[in-house]
Specification:
The chain is of the alpha/beta class. It is about 50% helix and about 10% strand. It has 32 helices and 21 strands. The strands form six sheets. It has a seven-stranded mixed sheet with strand order 4-3-11-5-10-8-6. A five-stranded parallel sheet has the order 17-18-19-20-21, with no helix packed on it. It has a three-stranded antiparallel sheet with strand order 12-14-13.
C-alpha cells in the first residue's frame, strides 16, 4: 500500500502544484478591476479547494507583513463571488418572460420571442401632451433618417459627435412600447457574459416595488441588501473601483415626491433616510458618483427628473415595419397563418400603426390566430373590434380553464366585467396605471380572489408580485384599461340607464346620445388626451358589429323580445352624436382634439366631411375653394393621417392666404420643408411661423417665403422665432420680400442669439443699404455661426 502511495505522490504533487499555480494566477487576476468570473457552477470539492488556496495565500501574505494586500485580496474574492451569484440570479429572473399574468401566464424564453426595437438617440425630457396613441401615429409619419438610431447594448457608449462620457441615461417611450423588455435583455446579456462586461454589478430597481416601501426609512446599503440578499457580504471598499449600473424602471409609476430641490444632500450610503432622499441623491450623483444610472419612463413623466441630471435622452420607438413582420414570424409557428396576419395588419392603417407597440402585436397575434384557426367570419378592422375580440378570447380561455367549458359561445360574467370596468374607469380619472389592494376593494373585487378575477380576463388584468413585497395590479396596457372603462360606461347606460360620466340617472327613454355627448365633453376637457381613446372605444361600441360580439352582456329586460342589442339604440342616436361631434370640430382650437374627433367619426362610420375634402383634393380644386371651418379641420386631418410622409408642404396646392397658413399650422409643424413662395402672404403669417419655430417638437428645417411682401415688420416677427433656443431651422429664403436695413438688423440680432442652426439664408432682391449689410456681416463673424 505504502509503495503504491510512494509511486503516486509525484503525480499528486504535480496536480497540486498545477492547481496551486492556476489558482494563484486567478487570485492575481482578481486584483485587476477588469476580472470577470464565469457564472457556471463549480463542483463543491473544487470550491473547497479554492477556499483552501485562498486561506494559504492570506496566511503567507500576513506572515510577509502584507496585511493590506491580504485584506484587498480577501475583499476582491468576496466581491467576485457576490458578482457571480448576482449574475446567476439575474439570469434566472430575466431569461424567461410571462405573457399575460405574472406566475399565471405562459412562460417563454426571452431569446425566442425577443425582437430588436427601434431606439433613437436625442431629444429631451419635455412633457408630450399628445395621447400616447397619437404619439405613435405621429412617429409613424416622421421621415426616415430624421432621428439617430442607437442599439440598446450601446446605450452608455458616446457617439462620434459627443464630447463627454455618458453616465445618466433617461429612456422614454409610451406604455407597451418595449422599455422594460429592453432593460431585461440588456441585463440578461450582461449576466450571461455576452455584452458590457466592463460593468461589474447591475442593480435593477422597479418603482412599482419601491412604492410599497415609501413609508419607511433605509440606507442605500439596506435597500440593496433588501432586493439583492446575495450582496450581504459585498465590500464597497472603493466606489470608483467597480463600474456599477443602477436601473430605475418605470418612473411614470413612481408615487414618491422626488423633491430634487427640497431634499437634503446625502453622500453616506449607510445613512438612514427616507426613500425619496436616497433616490434623488442617487439620481443627482451624490451617492455613488461614478456609477451609471438608467431611468425608464413614459413621456408624460420624463420631466420629473431635472435636465441637469440627465446626460442622454433616448426614446424607444417600438417596432419599425421590418421588425413588426419579424415579431409575427417569431411569435407564430405556422408561417402561412403569420403571412395572413401580416397581410391583414397592413390592410388597416390604424392597426398597422398600433403595431409599433409590441404589446399590441401580442394582442393582434393572439386574436387573429384564434380567428383564422376557428374560421370566424368577422375579422377586426378597427381598434374597438380588435379589443372586443380580445375580451372574447380571454373570456373563452377562462371558461375552459376554470369551468371546463369548451362551448364556442362566449359565457360572459357581466358582474365581474362591470367590476373590472369600474376599476378601469375610476383609475383612469385619477390618472393611475397601477392599483393596490384598497383600490380593488373599493370596486368590489375580493383581493383573495384577485387571481381568479385575473384568470377571468387572463392577460387583460395582470398581477405582479415583488420578490419581497406586497402585490400590485395593473392592466397589460393603458389602451386595455381605456377599453374596459368605455365598456363599463356603455353597459351602465344600456342596463341601468345610468350616465356615469355626468353622474346622472337617465329616464327610461333616454337615448345613448346623452352618454356620447357627456363623453365628448369630458374628452375635450382634458388637454392630456386622457379620455381620447376611451371616447373612440365608447362610440365604436355603439355600432351593431361590436354589439353583436357582446351579445349576452346587455340586460335582456332592456331588450325585451328583440333579438339584437343594436335595436336598443337606433341610428338616430348615432346621427345626433355625429352632428354634435361635427359642431365640436368646428370649434376645436387644438389640432390634437380635432384629430381625435375625426377618429371618432371614423368609429361611427361617418366620412362625410372627409369625402368632401377628398373630392376637392382629387379634382385639384382646393386652391380656389372657399372652405368652412369644418372643411378646414377635415383637410388638416386628411393631411396628418395620410399614408404619405409630410416631408414637403407646398401652400400653392391649397389656398394662398394668411388664413390658410394659420388653418394648416399643424401640418406645417410636422413637415420638414415648407414652400410658401409667392403666396400673397403678409407679416401676419410671420407670427404663425414664429410660433412654429419656437416649438421643440417642430420638424421644420427648410422655409421658403420668397416673393411675399412681408417687409421689415414680418421679418421682426419671424426673428422672435429664429432667436428661440428651440428653433432648428437650417434653410431660410427671404428673397424679394421687401426687407430693408431694419429687417437686416433684426436678422443679425437673431443670428447672434441662436447661431448654431441656420446654414443657408437667401436675401436676394431686398434693399438693406450699407448699414444693414454691415450688421449682418458682423453676425457672421461668430465662430458658432453655421451660415455658409
Amino acid at each position: 500500500m505504502n509503495s503504491d502511495l510512494t509511486r503516486k505522490l509525484p503525480v499528486l504533487e504535480e496536480k497540486i502544484i498545477a492547481f496551486l499555480k492556476k489558482e494563484l494566477q486567478r487570485l492575481k487576476q482578481i486584483l485587476s478591476p477588469d476580472y470577470q468570473e464565469n457564472i457556471e457552477m463549480k463542483s463543491e470539492d473544487e470550491t473547497d479547494a479554492r477556499e483552501g488556496v485562498l486561506k494559504m495565500a492570506l496566511h503567507f501574505l500576513c506572515k510577509m507583513e502584507h496585511k493590506d494586500l491580504a485584506d484587498e485580496l480577501n475583499d476582491n474574492e468576496i466581491n467576485v463571488g457576490c458578482q457571480k451569484d448576482l449574475k446567476r440570479n439575474l439570469k434566472n429572473k430575466y431569461q424567461s418572460v410571462f405573457e399575460g399574468i405574472a406566475k399565471h401566464g405562459s412562460s417563454v424564453l426571452l431569446e425566442k420571442i425577443y425582437t430588436d426595437l427601434y431606439i433613437t438617440e436625442g431629444g429631451s425630457g419635455e412633457v408630450n401632451e399628445k395621447h400616447e396613441v397619437r404619439q405613435i401615429e405621429y412617429r409613424s409619419k416622421k421621415p426616415a433618417g430624421q432621428d439617430r438610431p442607437i442599439k440598446c447594448v450601446d446605450i452608455f457608449k458616446p457617439s462620434s459627435i459627443q464630447d463627454k462620457s455618458i453616465r445618466r441615461v433617461l429612456t422614454k417611450g409610451v406604455a407597451g412600447i418595449g422599455k422594460t423588455i429592453s432593460v431585461h435583455k440588456y441585463i440578461l446579456d450582461w449576466a450571461e457574459g455576452n455584452n458590457n462586461q466592463d460593468i461589474k454589478f447591475i442593480f435593477p430597481l422597479c418603482f412599482r416595488e419601491l412604492n410599497i416601501m415609501k413609508e419607511n426609512e433605509y440606507s442605500l446599503m439596506d435597500l440593496l441588501h433588501h432586493f439583492f440578499p446575495e450582496l450581504k457580504e459585498f465590500k464597497f471598499v472603493c466606489q470608483k473601483k467597480y463600474q456599477l449600473l443602477f436601473v430605475l424602471d418605470g418612473l411614470d409609476e413612481c408615487r414618491l415626491q422626488l423633491d430634487f430641490q427640497g431634499n437634503e444632500s446625502l453622500t453616506d450610503m449607510r445613512a438612514v433616510k427616507s426613500l425619496d432622499v436616497i433616490l434623488t441623491n442617487l439620481i443627482k450623483g451624490n451617492l455613488f458618483s461614478s456609477a451609471l444610472l438608467w431611468v425608464t419612463s413614459r413621456p408624460a413623466a420624463a420631466g420629473r427628473i431635472p435636465a441637469e441630471c440627465v446626460d442622454l435622452v433616448t426614446e424607444v420607438q417600438g417596432f419599425n415595419d421590418v421588425q413588426k413582420e419579424e415579431y409575427f414570424r417569431k411569435r407564430i409557428s405556422d408561417q402561412s397563418c403569420a403571412s395572413k396576419i401580416i397581410s391583414h395588419i397592413k390592410s388597416s392603417r390604424s392597426l398597422h400603426i398600433m403595431c409599433h407597440m409590441p404589446v399590441f402585436c401580442w394582442i393582434a397575434a393572439m386574436v387573429l390566430q384564434m380567428i383564422y384557426s376557428t374560421g370566424h367570419k368577422q375579422i377586426p378592422k378597427t381598434l374597438t373590434e380588435m379589443y372586443t375580440f380580445f375580451l372574447m378570447f380571454q373570456t373563452r380561455q377562462r371558461s375552459a380553464k376554470f369551468d371546463n367549458l369548451q362551448d364556442p359561445e362566449v359565457q360572459w360574467n357581466p358582474e365581474l366585467i362591470l367590476r373590472l370596468g369600474k376599476l378601469a374607469y375610476e383609475q383612469l380619472e385619477k390618472g393611475n396605471l397601477i392599483f393596490y389592494e384598497e383600490d380593488l376593494r373599493e370596486c368590489g373585487i375580493d383581493v383573495k380572489e384577485a387571481t381568479v378575477c385575473s384568470g377571468m380576463c387572463t392577460q387583460i388584468f395582470r398581477e405582479e408580485s415583488g420578490i419581497f413585497l406586497g402585490t400590485v395590479f395593473c392592466f397589460v396596457h393603458l389602451s386595455i384599461q381605456e377599453y374596459l372603462a368605455a365598456l363599463y360606461a356603455f353597459l351602465m347606460m344600456a342596463n341601468e340607464r345610468n350616465d356615469i360620466i355626468s353622474a346622472q340617472r337617465a329616464h327610461k327613454k333616454t337615448s345613448m346620445a346623452i352618454l356620447h355627448k357627456s363623453a365628448v365633453d369630458k374628452a375635450l376637457a382634458y388637454d392630456d388626451g386622457r379620455f381620447d381613446l376611451f371616447l373612440r372605444f365608447l362610440l365604436g361600441l355603439s355600432l351593431e358589429s361590436n354589439q353583436t360580439l357582446l351579445d349576452g352582456l346587455v340586460s335582456r329586460r332592456q331588450v325585451g323580445c328583440m333579438d339584437k342589442i343594436s335595436t336598443l339604440f337606433g341610428l338616430a342616436d348615432n346621427d345626433k352624436t355625429i352632428r354634435y361631434i361635427k359642431d365640436k370640430i368646428r370649434e376645436a382650437h387644438s389640432s390634437e382634439r380635432m384629430i381625435n374627433l375625426f377618429h371618432c367619426l371614423n368609429e361611427l362610420n361617418d366620412h362625410s366631411l372627409l369625402k368632401e375634402i377628398q373630392s376637392f383634393l382629387s379634382a385639384g380644386k382646393l386652391s380656389k375653394a372657399k372652405l368652412s371651418p369644418g372643411q378646414w379641420s377635415a383637410l388638416v386631418f386628411v393631411l396628418l393621417t395620410s399614408d404619405q410622409n409630410l416631408d414637403v408642404f407646398d401652400l400653392k396646392k391649397f389656398i394662398r392666404s394668411d388664413e390658410a397658413l394659420l388653418r394648416l399650422k399643424p401640418v406645417v409643424e410636422e413637415s420638414h420643408t415648407t414652400l410658401l413662395d409667392s403666396c400673397g402672404l403678409t407679416s401676419q403669417s410671420c407670427t404663425t411661423l414664429a410660433s412654429i419655430l419656437c416649438k421643440e417638437s417642430s420638424n421644420l428645417r427648410k422655409l421658403d417665403l420668397s416673393g411675399n411682401h412681408i417687409g421689415d415688420a414680418g421679418v421682426k416677427k419671424l426673428c422672435s422665432g429664429l432667436k428661440n433656443p428651440n428653433c432648428a431651422l437650417e434653410t431660410l429664403s427671404l428673397s424679394g420680400c421687401g426687407v430693408t436695413g431694419e429687417g437686416y438688423a433684426a436678422l443679425a440680432s437673431a443670428l447672434k442669439s441662436n447661431p448654431s442652426h441656420l446654414e443657408e439664408l437667401d436675401l436676394r432682391g431686398n434693399d438693406p443699404g450699407d448699414s444693414g449689410v454691415k450688421l449682418l456681416t458682423s453676425a457672421l463673424t461668430n465662430q458658432k455661426c453655421k451660415l455658409r
